[in-house]
Design brief:
Its EC number is 2.7.13.3. With 467 residues, this protein is of the alpha+beta class. It contains 9 helices and 14 strands.
Length: 467
Amino acid sequence: MRIGQPRSLQTRQLLVASLFLLAFLALAGYALDRAFLKTARDQLADRLQSYALSLASSGEFARDGAFVAPESMPDSRFARPGSGLYAEVVFPNGHWDSDSAQGPGLPPAPLLPARRTRFEGPLEMREIDGRFGEVYRYGLGLIWSSDDTNKAAEFPYTIYIYEDTDALREQVTVFRAALWRYLGGAGLVLLLLQGVILRWSLLPMRQVIDELKRVQRGEAQRMSERHPRELEPLTDSINAFIQGERENLDRQRNTLADLAHSLKTPLAVMRSKLDDEASDDSSLRSEVRTQVQRMNDIVSYQLARAASRGHALFAQPIPIAPHAEQIVTSLEKVYASKGVLCEFELEEGIQFYGEAGDLQELLGNLLENAFKWAKSRVLLTIEPIACDGGRRPGLLIAVDDDGPGIPPEKVALILQRGVRGDERVQGHGIGLAIVQDLVRAYRGELEVSTSSELGGARFEARMSPGP
């Protein structure tokens, strides 16, 4: 990758997705670890509680107030010193410790109120070898009542069950090792799967790039139409751009061909005049002046016509109403003697997606033609053409007049492209030919028919929706 070059889309998506995946796995692992630790502590508390209840149900106090442990303890570890499981009974006149508690220094154990329980830890204690360890402790507050009716025989006592943290710590350690091992494996599998899915999802983009390279090498004329709907606006725009460039190139070639063909006749006339030895200087100068002026008119016309053909494919929208009003105002002054009235049927805020010069050329030629042949009325109708897929709307421009109209057999003649050397600017031909070229440049169609409203001619230009 070159310095300063942005990362590829695949790299960006893979990096972002990997970061989110790692963050998710970390949060999931932390949540599972906390949940397991809480469950393990709850299970430990339940187990210690069962030991305490078992000791409370089977143990008793002698008449001298000493606690008498049951012969069979709930767990054999209570009888093994330093086993890690300890029992202690605290009462007002002393306390009792299980055999396993002989040696270790248990934490201070206060009396608890009756029917009060307490689970706490880790608490620090001194082990048999003098080191300090940690234990969890469960306390159960009780009241001892003998069968004697003497109320003084009742007194509170508390049973404490201790278990060192080694067992729980080892259990948590094993769980964490398994948890992160499985999460790590799942993360690697998900990363690989994510890379495969990402590569598969970006395959249409690589196909678009391959098609573009084929178009650049001349192996294909345009982009194919078999692409996902998300890429259709892109490929349609590229095809429109390619088509527009080819049309511009064709128009330039046609313009040069027209210009060359048009200049052949005056050049041939001047050459024949120069070869004519009988011609005098005055007639030669007059003929050369005439032909030069004719050539100048031809060049000016062809250049203006070539300029009217090009258009920007992705131009900003232009409001139509101001341009239409300006053109009509000028034409009403030119044809003031005829008293022609032009009516508008325009949607409010309607716009033209193209160049302002193209809009003026299009409206100017259509309206001037209508004013020229109308008796008293001209109708300008402009409305959008609905489209789907989020594309910009098309445009319908129609001009009606109440003139004599155009016979159907002459429609093709007046719209044909002027390429002859004796082509003249006056009349229908040139202006309508320019309109025809402009409409085609915007991928539209120009239709000529009889006006149903005014009875004369109707010129209808339909520009297709844009990309």
